[in-house]
Amino acid sequence: MEAAYVSGVGIRRIQRSHSTLRAVGSPRITFPEALFHSCHGVTPFPVQHDLVDHPLFDIERLASLAASLPAHRVEWNAGDLPASVRRDDVRSNGLSAVETLRSIHRCGSWIVLKHVQLDRDYARLLHECLSPIQAALGVQGLSLSRPVGFIFVSSPGATTPCHLDPESNFLLQVRGTKSISTLPRLDPRFVLLEELERFTVGGDRHVQLEDSALAEAVGHELSPGDGLHVPIHAPHFVVNGPAVSVSFSLTFQTEATDRERGVLWMNHRLRSLGLEPTPPGTSNALDLAKLTLFKGLRSARRVLRRNPPPS
Q: Which residues of 14-38 are buried (b: 16+ CB within 10 A; e: fewer)?
């Protein structure tokens, strides 16, 4: 891949030369084979897709999907936010989910439809898109599990503040343009280990960043047909372009992401006991011991839920 750094306001932006990409996979989603094997799970890299103008991403079809999903699977808010914000400072837009979608071109909002695979049509599309990714993971001895699809719809100029994702993510830009800015994962300059551990056990996904940290972000410009791999636990924020944006997010777990999340979960418990646990990846032996303990505790909790002790 040829990368040129273009000046921006506090953000390094990457432009790609599409002619250098060796595409592999199905016609639905393609990606540079060498970059996948060297970068997946570690650092962002580009993909391409053929979902532009796909009817499942028409606004009225998305409004129908929003109305059919369980209420807790739809989230929306005002989109005029800074890149770094606390969860308590995220404001409602005063509209319903369907109203938000139908007025997205003028209401200054952001909305996400979660677990879209609950709808049969979107489940089929998610499976088609993930097929070449599963094949590439297989070459690495990994398997794909617990796939989940998200659809993001944003008003012109809307911002999605800096946050973490608890899974491996491929974000496909279907309509409009956006800039997604990423920071290195597992870097304590941006997210302290204790904060990452709290996130893993259900804490706030939002990341608080100083201006100096925001200046370290690398910006990736996405147009329809472009996509980007965002590794698990890589802080990122999104600024929408001058038109309505629609993106399809393909997320999943692998043995590697499950391992990292299990170690972080155990680290949180160990820290509550006054210990100072090492970060994931510091020691394979320590990670294995933590995972063994994590799995044992998880199994015990399941047994207790099925067979609660007598009161």
A: bebeeeebeeebeebbbbbbebbee
